[in-house]
Amino acid sequence: MKSKNYCALPIIFTACFFLLAGNYLLAKDVTLILGAVPWEMAPVEAELTDAEPGTVNNIPFIRGKLYGMPVVVSLTGVGKTNTGMVVGVLCNEFRPKRVIFSGTGARVKPEIKAGYIILAEETFFHDAGNLHHDGMQMRPINGPEKGKFREPVFKPSPSLLAKALEVTKSHEPKELINVDGETYPTKIRTGRITTGDLFSVNEWKLDEIRHKFEADLFEMEGASVGQACQILDVPWLLIRGGSDLIQAGNASEDYKKYGPIAAKQAALFTLYFIEQLAQSELKAN
User: Please, which pLDDT band fits residue 28 given cuts at 50, 70 and 90?
Assistant: First the structure.
């Protein structure tokens, strides 16, 4: 009897190996969609089919499909450390073919109205380097590779950005923006998005972000997505809706008003982008 059980072990082991290998290969077709906080991902989660919640290393996620495309949806939490950690863990677990981050950012330029969407042509840390009396001196960041430095500026996948720009030509906003006595549709363009672990700023930091760094949006996760994906060699795209107009002082109340508007517009465009991407890949196959 014992010898029969031992003979079965190689068969069981082989079956488990191919099952795990099959899951690994299938995972490579997954698109990882991230947001920082629940209201940034709520419209995306509402459209999921075949949704299955799960957890890896205490990080909740939902696996499902959008327009036939296999996706994993999760939250990074707020800030650079949370974001880098979550991107690393989920990329290791699912081996995604791409990472798309959808969320909000404070508007640096007044001409960017609440709910307007910025596709990051580059994202960078505004708090990485040396802090002098005249402001930040940006410097390269030591990476995990021995002796290798990386600039604190990250550019998304050229093909994903090009596809997103192509998609804007046919995009018709599902919902108009209604705020501050105005009603208008979102507008979409590329821009520079800056990242740091600051929710609010003082006057000199505001001046630096506006005039020295010439940013379009100010937020807390984007460059960490870019940095992690660059190291892991995963294509990525950052989609942000403009929320409150950045000012010196506490931004909490303004964010509560404009954040949900920005989050929804960014998520709706993200869904449309995913739909068009899914159709393109279906035709290609």
Answer: low
- Cα–Cα separations (whole angstroms), residue 223 to 62, 71, 96, 115, 205: 24, 22, 19, 21, 18
Which residues sit opposite 101 in a β-bridge? 34, 238
Helix (H/G/I), strand (E/B), else coil: 145: coil
* Residue 218 · residue 106 · CB < 8 Å: yes
Secondary structure letter of residue 173 according to DSSP = -
The CATH number given to whatever domain includes residue 163 is 3.40.50.1580
- Mean pLDDT across the chain: 86
Encoding tokens for residue 276? 């068009």
Range of the domain at 254: 100-284
Q: Domain for residue 161, yes or no?
A: yes
pLDDT, mean of residues 217-222: 91
Dig out the tokens for 268 from the structure: 């709706």
Question: Which pTM does this prediction carry?
Answer: 0.86
- Cβ density class 44-70: b for 16+ within 10 Å, e for less: bbebbeeeeeeeeeebebbbbebbebb
Tokens of 71: 């996706």
What pLDDT, in 10s, does the model give residues 234-247?
999 999 999 988 88
Q: Is 218 exposed, middle or buried (0-12, 13-18, 19+ CB in 10 A)?
A: buried
Res. 37: pLDDT tops 90? yes
